[in-house]
Specification:
The structure is a homodimer of 116-residue chains. Chain A is of the alpha+beta class and 116 residues long. Helix content of chain A is 48%, strand content 13%.
Chain lengths: 116, 116
DNA sequence: ACCTCCTATTGACAGTGGTCAATGCATCGA
DNA sequence: TCGATGCATTGACCACTGTCAATAGGAGGT
C-alpha cells in the first residue's frame, strides 16, 4: 500500500497586512507595487468593467471606446495590470480577451483588513 | 403646525466599489486618489507603524529613524496621507502626534470587497 | 503572397512624484 | 528676549508615468 501523502493547505497564501504589525521595507515595497497598479482611474475602470462583464472576459477593442483612451494607452494599462497579476490575457484568433484575477485583488483587499 | 422634515440617514457612507459595476470617470478618480496614497512603501510603513502603536499615536520624530528617511521626507509623506484622510495630526506643545483614520482605510478596503 | 484587422511596442513629450539641503515657523525653557 | 528644538515649507534635482502618433507584430481572409 502506498504511503499516504498529506499536503498542508496553505491557509495564509495572503500577503502581509498593513494593520497587523510594522512592515519592513521589502514587504512594504511588495504591497506598494500592488496599490500602484490600482492608483490610476483608467485602470480602476478597466477592473470594474471586467468585474461586470457577463462572461468574465472583455476584448481589448471593447475597452477603447468606454474608456475614451487611445488603443496604445489602453494596451499600456492592460500591461501594467497584467504585470501586477491583476488581470490575464488570452489570445484567441485576432482578439485578446482579458479577465480579472480575483484572487490577486483579494490579496490586496486583505492587506487592508482591520485586525480584531 | 410646522411641516415634519425627514432626513434620510445615509447608510452608505461607503465609497463606490470596484467590483460591483463599471465606474464612471469621477468615481474612478476619487478612488484612484485614495490608492495613490497607499502606493508608496514609506507611506505603507507609516500606516503600519501607526496601527501597531500602543497608544494609537506616533510623534513625527519617532518616524524618522525607523523609516530611514530625512525629516522633510517624512513630513512630506505625512502630509500626503493627511490630505488623503488616512491620518490626522494633533499638535501638543512642540510635538505633533499622528494617528490612523481607520474608517477611511476601511472605505478603501470596502472598495475592493468581492460582490456576492 | 497580399491585404486587412487587432494588439503590442517604440519614441517623444509634458506632468507628476520622491528625495534632501536649506530655510522658515512655532513652541518651550532659560 | 534669546537660543534650542520639533515640524513644515521651499527649491532643486532626477526618476517615473500617462498620453498619443507612428510603427511593428501576428492572425485570418482572399
Amino acid at each position: 500500500m502506498a504511503k499516504r501523502v498529506v499536503t498542508i493547505e496553505p491557509t495564509d497564501r495572503c500577503c502581509p497586512s498593513v494593520l497587523a504589525s510594522p512592515l519592513d521595507a521589502s514587504q512594504a515595497a511588495e504591497l506598494a507595487s500592488g496599490f500602484t497598479a490600482l492608483a490610476d482611474p483608467v485602470r480602476l475602470r478597466v477592473l470594474s468593467i471586467l468585474a461586470a462583464a457577463p462572461e468574465g472576459e472583455v476584448c481589448v477593442c471593447d475597452f477603447v471606446e468606454p474608456l475614451g483612451k487611445s488603443q496604445p494607452t489602453v494596451s499600456h494599462h492592460l500591461k501594467i495590470l497584467s504585470e501586477a497579476g491583476l488581470v490575464g490575457g488570452d489570445r484567441r484568433g485576432k482578439w485578446v480577451w482579458y479577465s480579472l484575477n480575483r484572487e490577486r485583488l483579494a490579496d490586496l483587499q486583505a492587506a487592508l483588513q482591520p485586525v480584531e
